[in-house]
Design goal:
The structure is a single chain. The protein is an all-alpha fold and 363 residues long. It is built from 14 helices and no strands. The C terminus is likely disordered.
Length: 363
């Protein structure tokens, strides 16, 4: 009987998990902007309260000013990418000619070694492809789940989340009568807020540092559109595991096409790789630390599942979402053990070699 009951519980949880995933897929157009606004809102609550305290302005006015600043930053970033990508596509014919020359030289060299490869590129095909994909800017921005409509939705969601944030406190007070449980629940929520805030702020600072360091390297080696590629690589750094390899590959290909000396692309790759290593192993732990306390496997699974369900937005958002779920699991006595699967391995006690520690119990 106990086995049947356990089997029913497992089946019910699997059905619930399947239903949640189905809702995430079907409701993507609503849930992606809502989740962006929720994560930003969780990270912004303390800042809004601080501004309110310092200025004594009405809550609605503070939130509107805050949203206006965010909107200006997004518009500036979008306009920046528009100008830079427009410049890159304007230079495309010259880059294609240079690529064709490089390919011809490579083909001649390999042909002398007995290896035959095409010695030209189909410029007409590439030009036609570019013409058919003029919406690349919109597609690039939409990959993060943002177009004009979604930005408007995020602004609205964010306003209401910040304005009505105290409703959660009133709900908990009215719903949970046990004082100990109420204190524990509030502590769990405050912990999730603190972790999310530290994680988001840390990522913003890390992205800024990455962009500056990338820019210095690219300017030193004289790569065209250095600002664009510096920001591009810094933003891709937000996507763990897969972001940096994609960014490095794009920059390397561009450098190989535009630079006469083939040594320069290798030096650019080595310098950027060193910066990424420095960011991931020294600056990131110092800025962000182990805020989410998630093991590498759970982070990797979060990226894969997030990408499958919500695309690039899911790859970024699912990491803090899973981190918050882990915090709530740890705060729930019944489900606390499940949080172990998201955590790092416990540190083993250091035992000196050749020494056996025995516990002797005297009766």
């Amino acid at each position: 009987m106990e086995t049947q009951s356990r089997l029913l519980q497992i089946t019910a949880r699997l059905i619930l998990a399947t239903l949640i995933i189905l809702i995430m897929v079907v409701g993507k157009k609503f849930l992606v902007p809502f989740t962006w606004s929720l994560i930003i809102g969780l990270a912004s609550i303390k800042l809004i309260d601080w501004i309110k305290m310092k200025t004594s302005l009405p809550t609605a006015m503070v939130i509107i000013m805050y949203l206006f600043i965010i909107l200006l930053v997004l518009l500036a970033l979008g306009y920046f990418f528009y100008l830079e990508l427009h410049g890159i596509f304007s230079d495309l014919p010259a880059m294609l000619a240079q690529l064709s020359d490089r390919l011809h030289i490579l083909s001649t060299t390999l042909k002398n070694m007995g290896v035959a490869i095409p010695d030209h590129i189909d410029k007409a095909y590439i030009s036609e492809w570019v013409h058919q994909h003029k919406e690349i800017i919109q597609n690039f921005v939409s990959a993060f789940g943002f177009d004009l409509w979604n930005i408007i939705l995020v602004m609205f969601f964010l306003f209401f989340i910040l304005y009505y944030k105290d409703l959660l406190t009133h709900f908990l007070t009215a719903h949970i009568k046990d004082r100990k449980k109420l204190i524990s629940t509030r502590a769990t929520i405050n912990k999730s807020l603190s972790v999310t805030r530290g994680y988001i702020y840390g990522l913003l600072i890390l992205t800024s540092i990455s962009a500056v360091l990338n820019l210095i390297v690219l300017l030193v080696f004289g790569l065209k559109f250095a600002i664009f590629f510096a920001v591009f690589l810094a933003i891709l750094n937000l996507i763990p595991i897969v972001g940096n390899p994609i960014g490095l590959t794009v920059i390397m290909l561009f450098a190989l096409i535009t630079k006469e000396n083939l040594l320069i692309p290798l030096l650019i790759f080595a310098s950027l790789f060193f910066i990424i290593f420095l960011l991931d192993n020294i600056i990131r732990p110092w800025l962000i630390g182990d805020k989410l306390k998630m093991n590498a496997f759970s982070v990797f699974i979060s990226i894969i599942i997030g990408g499958m369900i919500w695309g690039v937005s899911g790859m970024i958002l699912f990491i803090p979402i899973v981190g918050i779920i882990k915090i709530f699991l740890e705060g729930h006595e019944t489900n606390r053990n499940y949080a172990i699967f998201f955590s790092e391995l416990p540190k083993k006690d250091k035992v000196k070699t050749g020494v056996i520690i025995e516990k002797v119990t005297e009766e």
